[in-house]
Sequence to fold (191 residues):
Amino acid sequence: MSPEVLSMTLAAAQLLLALAMTCALYRLLRGPRAQDRVLALDTLYVNAMLLILIFGIAARSRDFFEAALVIGTLGFVSTAAAAKFLLRGEVIE
Amino acid sequence: MTTVAAVLVLAGALLAFIGALGLVRLPTFFERVHPPTMGTTLGTALVLAGSMLYFSALDSHLVLHEILIGVFMTLTTPVTYILLGRAALRREHKDPET
Fold:
């Protein structure tokens, strides 16, 4: 595959993920309840992680992998903490 | 090889987008829990496979560290969704309207 077609395919994938993040952001702002917002936050960070991985492929750089890993870790911790808070009213009991 | 990688990445992004679209379109919370998992399971797996293929082709040796993200997502997504589903059930039960 020629480099132009490859970069165009990657740009299309980036556009799709940006649209997905916009959808998640809409749900995050709109609600209607707190659990919908937490779910939207979870979707948002997963899409951001995929977007950063694709940035790494487009830039031919290995450094973006660590960023994606950190986003995955922190996103899991924050979503689990938010869900725990909704469940019990406290994060750490 | 890079063609296959690009197609895999595009398919993964498409799945993530369809999942996010479902998050916007479906009417109730318990229906909305399902679509984002398309992006977190198969979408992530396809993008990671594309990334592994691309960097393996670029370096002409096997690059597999992306599996770490895949294992991590596979382990953590069910945990968060179980917690969130339980919280939603309790909240619906306690106060169904708001």
